[in-house]
Amino acid sequence: MAKFGGMGGHTGGRPRDAFDLFENAIERALGAELVTDDALCADLWSSLANMDWRHDNGDTASYSFRAAGDLIAAIRGRGDYMDWYCSGPYATVSDKIRRVMRKEGWRPVIATNVAGS
User: 60-63 and 106-110 as β-strands: parallel, antiparallel, unpaired?
Assistant: First the structure.
């Protein structure tokens, strides 16, 4: 089992992590839309911040407020975590994100170990 995510906070952004299986799933499921749809990015931030995600194979992913923003900026290929930091209500998964991530084998679980930083 692998654990993905982190605390984040990369000023100026970070590159995509090709080895992060959760990030790869987000890219496949939503990547093209995230580049142009700010509302979807805010929904994704809400779906990641202070949430645990669990894959059918047992892998997990957890994101702080900053790390959720980092992931979005990395997939968009521009900006940094502050562009998305607190862009919506945290720990709130939209139906669309729940549906597309379920197709990738991931499901959300309310986090118990990630601080909103």
Answer: unpaired
Whether 74 and 17 have beta carbons less than 8 Å apart is answered as yes
Distance CA 67, CA 88 (A): 14
Distance of CA 45 to the CA centre of its chain: 6
Residue with tokens 């997939």: 75
Name the strand (E) or helix (H) holding 61: strand 60-63
Tokens 């939503």 sit at which residue? 30
Query: What digits encode the pLDDT tens for the residues 13-64?
Result: 777 888 889 999 999 999 999 999 999 999 999 999 999 999 999 999 999 9
Ranges of each domain in the chain: 3-110
* Residue 112 DSSP class: S
- Alpha carbon distance 110, 14 (integer Å): 26
Q: Is the pTM higher than 0.70? A: yes
